[in-house]
Amino acid sequence: GFSSCSKDSPMTLNLTNTAKTYNDGTKALLSTNLKVSTGEIVSLLGPSGCGKTTLLRIIAGLETPDSGGKIWFDEDDVTDLPVERRQVGMVFQSYALFPNMSVKANIGYGLKMQKLPKSDIEARVSEVLEMCQLNDYSERAVTALSGGQRQRVALARAIAPRPRLLLLDEPLSALDAALRETLRDELAILLRKFNITAIFVTHDQNEAMAIADRVAVMSKGKIVQSGTPEELYRKPNSTFVASFVGSAMHLTGKIRGSKIKLNGGEISLPRDGTDCEAYVRAENIQINENGPLSGRIDNITFLGTHYRLGISGIVPETITSIFSGNKAPKIGDKINISIEPDTILLLPKMTIDD
Ligand code: ATP
Questions:
Q1: N or C of the chain: less Cβ packing under 10 Å?
Q2: What is the predicted pLDDT for the residue at 110?
Q3: Residue 351: pLDDT band with limits 50, 70, 90
Q4: What are phi and psi of 97, to 5 degrees?
Q5: Measuring from atom 28 of ligand 1, which residue has the nearest CA?
């Protein structure tokens, strides 16, 4: 990790049979196994209420898992260790910085609590100030910083005590859309610079894909699929993951063998699709005057690098297509489209609950 860091190399996190039932009976987390390798950055991605925060809080030691669950930091069973003894760094949505303190004082706060010698505190603070590019702001009050700078201070403060594990809960969600996009790349770079094992909670798929080495997609208290961003995008294991990661759209129609009949016409599937549902992504819906499906342009959004077209008549819902040519069709135009069979995702019909 740190240049001047003697012992610490990143740790491995291992959760076995970890579940959480709250006092009111809510099963927020069903029995979960999760392994995070040394230095790996894993994102927990899922819609509101799926149990992401619960899982993160269990790892931190802020919640106790149901009996039978175990949490390992390397070879250490930390299941019964309280939060203050787990050596985890945490960054939250509201940065929870001390408004009346300078950047430097905020970053050094945890070290002072640990009663480290003054010279050690100073050395570490200047190390993280440098790493997080906050040198120019060290004496400033945190209230006089931009959202992005505050976020870096929160990160610097979490990392200064050299935690074994870094936990981040929606750290970008307080920022506006444009800033979020810049900062997520910056955060991805910083986290790798720290060389620390990290878990990052978000409901934003772009954020998860941009920052994580591996994404664990959660739904209704379960990790339903875990993989690299590419794996999840190209080989989703369920209709839920296909739509949540990369917004695949349902091709609602009648599947007969390796054909599917839609409202707009019939097309071929990559293989026999009996008992499956067919899904497709916007970039694979191609405007093609000889295409077998006919529809109508309902709306057009110009996005600089491409247009996003809403097309009706193919399936009951409006289907979205990415169009990157120069001359986009107009609203109301009748068009034909084609979908290459091998771009169609055939997914098991069952729901996540089954
Ligand atoms: P969000 O993205 O909205 O924060 P989340 O995926 O982090 O959602 P959790 O906060 O882990 O979800 O909550 C999972 C489930 O547990 C939800 O149904 C929530 O209402 C419930 N829950 C959370 N905390 C408690 C609690 N202290 N007591 C009872 N139920 C709770």
A1: C
A2: 86
A3: low
A4: -85, 160
A5: 22
